[in-house]
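Figure 3 (text version): structure tokens given as input.
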């Protein structure tokens, strides 16, 4: 993505992901549901409550089963 001019940031855990999204605006977030320190569900809830990016699009990724656990 960087090759095409996109800025990419990474977070190693859910706590860092929430902090990053609160600190500056983003257009898209790729969110793993199985993150250390804070689950993907909780990250999504917190991001929706206090995001610096009101139009943030979130793409949820999960390697768990058939996705029935996603709401």
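Below: residues designed for each position.
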């Amino acid at each position: 993505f960087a090759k095409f001019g996109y800025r990419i940031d990474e977070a190693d855990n859910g706590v860092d992901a929430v902090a990053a999204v609160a600190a500056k605006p983003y257009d898209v977030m790729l969110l793993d549901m199985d993150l250390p320190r804070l689950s993907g569900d909780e990250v999504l809830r917190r991001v929706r409550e206090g995001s610096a990016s009101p139009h943030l699009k979130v793409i949820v990724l999960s390697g768990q089963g058939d996705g029935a656990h996603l709401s």
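Residues 40-50 form the longest helix (11 residues).
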